């Protein structure tokens, strides 16, 4: 078994993902690698029940509009704004200091340098407190931020003040609307208590592949990973066409990654049992078993229009495979085997370079032909996801702390950072749209988000999952997003027409 052949100390980011749990209904303790369920799922958009509060909203108010509203806080003072919003609207409300106190904790130094730490409060039209926040999102930045679905029709009162009585200064109140995506349908596996670990779409968006994870009730990764092929011709009623790895089980543990490869008439799966398998989609029969990793295989990617694929694993290696023969072509070693688990891999549009993301804090770029490392990008919190844009030079990486960074692969410079996912929540999956305009992210915070690549703005948030989301993909026509989560559901979402 996997647990007997490969046992090592977990790195700090991996301890966030795995628990060492006692065997159910047993006095003995058996050490097992087990996917951890969220300890305290905090919805990214929290339902708010207005309650009476002794805090009194300020009387003197200025009118605020969408976008930037400049203001000035006197030392130790506050400023109030009124905003006419509509019930059900999702807003991101930020108080951005012109000279933020981020990274400066000493009050004397804040005063000397004229720095401002902002604090936000929002009241309902009837004067009931509905939201407060000090940091943006919560500690990494002293600019306050509130993500809020308005519980009523306005006008609402928004107060900005200094979080410290001794500071003041100029700031901008920024109010940004974010559309909420519409859930078209969901497939539930709650009767089996099986989280959905992976999902991918065919090139035309007509079909989807999904894989189930372990039985959550026992945190058991040793279950055979079941996979399904779905017809999405009517996304409101997805139809299961075929299941794989049941009567003809090849994988003995959960399937972590799955892909159409090569083309849309074959598929490949990667499992925690250290193997990969190619399948005939039309018959559901296995074709090749690919064995080479000595630890769990976590991700895979196919080289476009070829019979080759690359896989990544907990053993710190990438392996390039010939899918026709099932033989290893080349191996890339990301880093020390004990500390460089590779959670994600991506291939460039021209098939010449490969990205790897590891919790050792590095995103690395590899030359496919030679196996040589070309460059690397630092992601100190531990990289968990990567993606290549269709332009060939923009890449995206996500980490264990909710960060998403867009990089220029040629210069190594940061293009911009996408801020919004909650801290201490993994960004598990990133996928660019086929036209390169959008980026889809999936996170442990229970949300899928659609970003504008050109501006870094969050355009649409998809809210409904009640557990960590492992995977999310966007259709080639920018109409649908399909997501897979540990709440035992596969969900299909509609992207608003104005975004397409």
Please, could you describe this protein's structure?
This protein is mainly beta. It has 2 domains: 62-178, Jelly Rolls, CATH 2.60.120; 182-499, Methylamine Dehydrogenase, Chain H, CATH 2.130.10. 3% of the residues lie in helices and 47% in strands. The chain is built from 3 helices and 39 strands. Strands 4, 6, 9, 11, 33, 34, 35 and 36 form an 8-stranded mixed beta sheet that branches. Mean pLDDT is 84; it is low at 1-54.
List keywords for this structure.
mainly beta; Jelly Rolls; Methylamine Dehydrogenase, Chain H; 2 domains; eight-stranded mixed beta sheet; 39 strands; 47% strand; globular; disordered N terminus
Level-1 CATH class name of the largest domain: Mainly Beta
Could you give the distance between the termini?
A: 47 Å
- The figure for the number of domains is 2
Percent in helix: under 10%
Strand-pairing-aware structural class: mainly beta
Would you tell me the overall average pLDDT?
A: 84
* CATH third-tier fold name of the largest domain: Methylamine Dehydrogenase, Chain H
Number of strands: 39
- Radius of gyration over C-alpha positions, nearest whole angstrom: 24 Å
Question: What is the molecular shape?
Answer: globular
- Major sheet description: 8 strands, mixed
Q: Find the CATH superfamily of the largest domain.
A: YVTN repeat-like/Quinoprotein amine dehydrogenase
Question: How much of the sequence is in beta strands?
Answer: over 45%
Tally of helical runs:
3
CATH architecture of the largest domain: 7 Propeller
- In the predicted model, the low-confidence regions spanning at least 5 consecutive residues are 1-54
């Amino acid at each position: 078994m996997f647990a007997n052949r490969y046992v090592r100390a977990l790195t700090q980011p991996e301890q966030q993902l795995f628990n060492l749990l006692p065997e159910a209904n047993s006095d003995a303790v058996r050490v097992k690698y087990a996917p951890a369920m969220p300890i305290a799922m905090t919805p990214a958009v929290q339902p708010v029940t207005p309650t009476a509060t002794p805090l009194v909203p300020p009387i003197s108010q200025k009118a605020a509009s969408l976008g930037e509203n400049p203001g000035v806080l006197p030392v130790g003072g506050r400023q109030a704004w009124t905003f006419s919003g509509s019930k059900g609207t999702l807003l991101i409300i930020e108080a951005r200091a012109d000279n933020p106190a981020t990274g400066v904790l000493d009050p004397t130094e804040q005063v000397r340098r004229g720095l401002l730490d902002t604090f936000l409060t929002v009241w309902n039209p009837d004067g009931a407190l509905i939201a407060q926040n000090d940091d943006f999102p919560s500690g990494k930045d002293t600019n306050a931020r509130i993500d809020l679905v308005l519980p009523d029709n306005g006008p609402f009162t928004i107060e900005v003040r200094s979080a410290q009585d001794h500071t003041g200064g100029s700031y901008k109140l920024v109010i940004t609307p974010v559309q909420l995506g519409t859930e078209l349908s969901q497939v539930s596996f709650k009767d089996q208590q099986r989280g959905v670990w992976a999902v991918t779409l065919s090139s035309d968006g007509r079909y989807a592949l999904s894989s189930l994870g372990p039985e959550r009730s026992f945190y058991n990764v040793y279950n055979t990973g079941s996979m399904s092929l779905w017809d999405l011709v009517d996304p409101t009623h997805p139809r299961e066409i075929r299941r794989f790895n049941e009567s003809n089980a090849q994988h003995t543990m959960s399937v972590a990654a799955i892909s159409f490869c090569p083309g849309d008439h074959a598929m490949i799966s990667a499992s925690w049992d250290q193997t990969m398998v190619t399948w005939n989609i039309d018959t559901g029969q296995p074709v090749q078993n690919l064995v080479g990793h000595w630890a769990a295989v976590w991700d895979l990617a196919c080289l476009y229009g070829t019979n080759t694929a690359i896989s990544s694993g907990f053993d710190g290696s990438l392996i390039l495979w010939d899918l026709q023969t099932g033989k290893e072509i080349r191996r890339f070693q990301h880093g020390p085997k004990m500390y460089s688990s590779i959670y994600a891999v991506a291939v460039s549009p021209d098939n010449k370079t490969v990205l790897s993301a590891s919790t050792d804090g590095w995103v690395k770029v590899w030359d496919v032909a030679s196996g040589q490392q070309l460059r690397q990008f630092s992601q100190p919190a531990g990289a968990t996801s990567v993606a290549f844009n269709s332009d060939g030079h923009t890449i995206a990486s996500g980490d264990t702390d909710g960060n998403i960074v867009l990089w220029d692969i040629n210069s190594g410079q940061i293009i911009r950072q996408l801020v919004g996912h909650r801290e201490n929540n993994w960004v598990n999956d990133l996928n660019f749209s086929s036209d390169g305009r959008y980026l889809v992210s999936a996170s442990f915070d229970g949300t899928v988000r659609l970003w504008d690549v050109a501006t870094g703005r969050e355009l649409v948030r998809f809210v409904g999952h009640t557990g960590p989301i492992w995977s999310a993909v966007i259709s080639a026509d920018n109409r649908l997003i399909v997501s897979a989560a540990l709440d035992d559901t596969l969900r299909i979402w509609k992207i608003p027409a104005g975004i397409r």
